[in-house]
Design a protein that fits this description.
CATH topology of the largest domain: D-Maltodextrin-Binding Protein, domain 2
Order of helices and strands: HEHEHHHEEEHEHEHEHEEHHEHEEH
Number of helices: 13
CATH class of the largest domain: Alpha Beta
Strand content: 15-25%
Number of domains: 3
Strand order of the largest sheet: 2-1-3-10-4
Number of strands: 13
CATH architecture of the largest domain: 3-Layer(aba) Sandwich
Helix content: 25-40%
Shape: globular
Largest sheet: 5 strands, mixed
Oligomer: single chain
Distance between the termini: 44 Å
Amino acid sequence: MTTATLTRPLRLGTRGSALAVAQSQKVAALVREATGRQVELVEIVTPGDRSNAPVARLGVGVFVSALRDALLAGQIDLAVHSYKDLPTQQADGLVIAAVPEREDPRDVLVSRDGASLATLLARSGVRIGTGAPRRIAQLLAAARQQRTDRTGDAPGVECVPIRGNVDTRLRRVLGPDPDLDAVVLARAGLSRLGRADVITEVIDPDLILPAPAQGALAVECRAGDTGLAADLAAFDHPATRAAVTAERALLAELQAGCSAPVGALATVTPAPAAATAPTGPATHHDSLHLRGAVIAVDGGTVVRMSDTGTLSDADSVGRRLAAALLDAGADSLLGSTR
C-alpha cells in the first residue's frame, strides 16, 4: 500500500437519505478516531431509493447491492449498512469489520392525538401506517387480543402500507393534512435524527418484537483490506455483535427474508463480577437471551418462543430457537416468504 493511499481520506459509502447520512456521520467519527485518517462520505444511489414499491416486493438486499458493488469495484473503502437490511449470507470478498454499539432496537408509536397503542387498538376504524409485514402482523395480532371480549370480531385497525423517509412518514400523522392516526417506526432511526421528541410510546417487545438486527449498524470493507479491517475492529461492540448474530441466525435458519413476518430480539446480561475477575471482562461468560416470533400475516396465529446461551454460542442459539419455532408450526405461517 502506497503512502498516498495511507494519507488520502477514506471513502465511506452511504445512501443519500437523511437517516443514512446521519448514521454514516456517526460511523465516520468512529473511523477517524480508530484510524487517525480523514473520512469523506460518498453517496451511492441504490435501487430501493429509486422505487416507491413496498420493500417486501423489492426483495432482500435492495438497499445493499449498490453499496457492495461500489465497495468491490474500489469506488469506496468501506460502507455503512443498517444491519437489518443485509441478506443473511455474507457477500464474497467482503467482511463485516465492525458492529458499533447498538441503539435501542425497539419499535415506537407516533400518534396524532397522543393516544397509546392499547387505546388505538381498542377503537374501530383506526389507520396505522407501516410498510413492514412483521409490524402489520403483530399489530393485527395485538388488536385481536385487545378485542377478545367480542368473539369473532375482526381487528378494528387498518394497517396502511407506507414508504418514504422519516419526515415523509411523520407528516402523515403530524402534518397539516394528516391521513393516519399513527405510524410505527424504529426508535433508533428517530434517535439518530434527533427526533425522539415525537415519540408517543416505546412499544414493549412482548407486544411487537423488532426486526432481527434492528437498531444495529454494520461497517463493511473488502476482506483483502486486512489493515483497515483491523483498525475498524477497534469500535466493534462484542455484545451487540453477538446479539445480532443470534437474531440473524434465527432468520437464516427459518429461511426467511428481512420482509418476512418474523421478529427477534437478543439481550445480553453481563456475567457476575466474580466470573470476570481478575483479568477483566470475559464476554464468553455473559448470558444471551433470545426471543423470537413468527406471525401469520393476518395476525390470527403467533408462535413465540425463547432460548438462552452464551455470547460465543450466539449462532447456535439462533438456529436452535428457529428449529423450535418450526417444530411448533412456524413453517406454515411463513408460506411464500421462505
